[in-house]
Amino acid sequence: MNIILLGPPGAGKGTQARKLVAERDMIQLSTGDMLRDARKSGTEMGRRVAEVMDRGDLVTDEIVIGLIEERLKGDQRGGFIFDGFPRTLAQADALGELLDRLGQTLHCVIEMQVDDDALVERITARSTCAQCGEGYNDIAKPIPADGKCEKCGGTEFIRRADDNAESLKQRLMEYYKKTSPLIGYYYAKGKLCSVDGLADIDEVAASIAALLDRAPA
Ligand code: ADP
Ligand code: ADP
Ligand code: ZN
Fold first, then answer.
1. Active site residue: 48, 126, 159, 169, which one?
2. N or C: which end of the chain has fewer CB within 10 A?
3. Residue to mutate (ligand 2; options 5, 15, 33, 83; most atoms within 8 A of CB)
């Protein structure tokens, strides 16, 4: 089963994708994570990407489509979760073509609905385990009192350079201008489902599980 998690920054896409990986052996394809890896590489491309990301703008379609194309060629286990991709209509068209070429289907697009106030709160409280990538939140899911990651025991936690109020404002603007049209795009294709992203993490997971169990294989 191949699905897209669609929603603004902070909607909970990464959190839910990680649960699906653990529970359904699916493969998370997060273009945000791939781009953060690219910027760590220290290449010229990495430096350019870093600048764009820190401003809160989108990187070019060409770069992210290339990253996704590369990953689709490998093993596909329980299917792909597209997390943070596609973000533009051009990316959505390109994904459709790539899946067609591989004889693959997109089963459903899950729109995670949240309001802007909750996003600001979530993003400024977000941190991640440096070792295993487990996500934490100062309010909803604090780092355990012993200071150790519950998944791997790691003791270093990082905050993203773009998780500040100013960059978030620009990321939200980009979302409404360029990404939210995908809601209508996938609705018209009969692929859109929505969940209440404001519910607790486990409740959101249960809503997504119910949708996946109902979706045609
Ligand atoms: P969030 O989890 O907050 O939604 P991501 O980790 O998905 O953020 O993305 C972080 C940044 O990486 C974006 O603000 C953008 O600059 C870049 N990015 C990630 N995915 C894409 C994409 N599909 N197209 C263009 N830019 C992207
Ligand atoms: P996205 O990948 O869509 O940008 P994340 O999954 O990184 O979003 O979630 C953003 C922040 O909000 C993280 O700190 C995460 O722990 C927290 N979070 C995720 N889902 C929920 C939820 N349902 N309720 C409260 N906080 C949440
Ligand atoms: Zn960890």
1. 126
2. C
3. 15
Angle at 83 between CA 77 and CA 89, to 5 degrees: 115
- pTM reported for the whole predicted model: 0.96
171 lines ligand 1 (CB under 6 A): yes
Catalytic residue among 19, 122, 171, 178: 171
Please count the CA atoms within 13 angstroms of the CA of 109 that sit on its side-chain side: 22
- What are the two backbone dihedrals, phi and then psi, of residue 132, each rounded to the nearest 5 degrees? -115, -10
**Cis? peptide before 216, omega within 30° of 0:** no
Q: Give residue-wise pLDDT tens across range 82-139.
A: 999 999 999 999 999 999 999 999 999 999 999 999 999 999 999 999 999 999 999 9
* R_g of the chain computed on alpha carbons: 17
Is the CB–ligand 1 distance for residue 6 below 6 Å?
no
